[in-house]
């Protein structure tokens, strides 16, 4: 009898043990899994928050300085790619020939002025892009015959000059009161109501724009 009782107790003991151990392990595994999920979620949430804050910061930078992010690619602004950069300024070479006064107005409408040529570097830059065509520049003697003036107020008398030989000449006594770069780049005075292409000039977008020429 005692032997049978001991065997029953043993079965009961081993039976309870084989049932309880796996359940205990499952609870631990579930707890660990839950913990890992919570940690993973927290890490993902933290990364998403950081990314969102970085995106927001980048958006604000672009919003406050629209052309800043690709200023190195398009110094004159990504939305104005027809403007060419040279030595700290932006230049527009027109595709349309108009009278001088109209050219002046068209430049002013783009917060620019007709180009003022103050030395050989700018002269070379402009004449390589105007070759074989006439382009108005910001030079005139409209007020007093023979008294040439630059639109930006630069001193003409002491400044750089690049007139073609024999110019300015008021050719055949016509009123040639507006300055242009001739087909070889040298300067010529010409009748202001004639049609010519024109060169506008303005500061880079990152610097304050002058709204009107003088
Ligand atoms: Ca003249
Ligand atoms: Ca002339």
From TrEMBL:
<feature type="domain" description="C-type lectin">
    <location>
        <begin position="86"/>
        <end position="201"/>
    </location>
</feature>
<dbReference type="InterPro" id="IPR033989">
    <property type="entry name" value="CD209-like_CTLD"/>
</dbReference>
<keyword id="KW-1133">Transmembrane helix</keyword>
<protein>
    <submittedName>
        <fullName>Hepatic lectin-like</fullName>
    </submittedName>
</protein>
<dbReference type="InterPro" id="IPR001304">
    <property type="entry name" value="C-type_lectin-like"/>
</dbReference>
<dbReference type="InterPro" id="IPR018378">
    <property type="entry name" value="C-type_lectin_CS"/>
</dbReference>
<keyword id="KW-1015">Disulfide bond</keyword>
<dbReference type="InterPro" id="IPR016187">
    <property type="entry name" value="CTDL_fold"/>
</dbReference>
<dbReference type="Pfam" id="PF00059">
    <property type="entry name" value="Lectin_C"/>
</dbReference>
<keyword id="KW-0430">Lectin</keyword>
<dbReference type="InterPro" id="IPR016186">
    <property type="entry name" value="C-type_lectin-like/link_sf"/>
</dbReference>
<feature type="transmembrane region" description="Helical">
    <location>
        <begin position="24"/>
        <end position="45"/>
    </location>
</feature>
<dbReference type="GO" id="GO:0030246">
    <property type="term" value="F:carbohydrate binding"/>
</dbReference>
<keyword id="KW-0472">Membrane</keyword>
<keyword id="KW-0812">Transmembrane</keyword>
<dbReference type="InterPro" id="IPR050111">
    <property type="entry name" value="C-type_lectin/snaclec_domain"/>
</dbReference>
């Amino acid at each position: 009898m005692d032997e049978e009782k001991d065997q029953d107790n043993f079965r009961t003991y081993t039976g309870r043990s084989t049932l309880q151990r796996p359940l205990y392990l499952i609870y631990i595994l579930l707890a660990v899994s839950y913990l890992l999920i919570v940690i993973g979620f927290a890490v993902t949430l933290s990364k998403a928050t950081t990314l969102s804050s970085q995106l927001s910061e980048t958006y604000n930078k672009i919003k406050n300085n629209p052309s800043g992010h690709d200023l190195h690619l398009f110094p004159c602004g990504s939305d104005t790619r027809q403007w060419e950069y040279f030595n700290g300024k932006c230049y527009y070479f027109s595709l349309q020939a108009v009278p001088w006064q109209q050219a002046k107005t068209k430049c002013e409408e783009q917060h620019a002025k007709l180009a003022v040529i103050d030395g050989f570097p700018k002269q070379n830059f402009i004449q390589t892009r105007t070759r074989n065509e006439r382009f108005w520049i910001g030079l005139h003697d409209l007020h007093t015959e023979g008294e040439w003036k630059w639109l930006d107020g630069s001193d003409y008398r002491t400044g750089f000059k690049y007139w073609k030989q024999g110019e300015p000449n008021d050719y055949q006594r016509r009123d040639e009161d507006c300055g242009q770069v001739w087909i070889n780049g040298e300067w010529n005075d010409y009748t202001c109501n004639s049609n010519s292409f024109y060169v506008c000039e303005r500061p880079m977008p990152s610097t304050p724009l002058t709204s009107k020429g003088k």
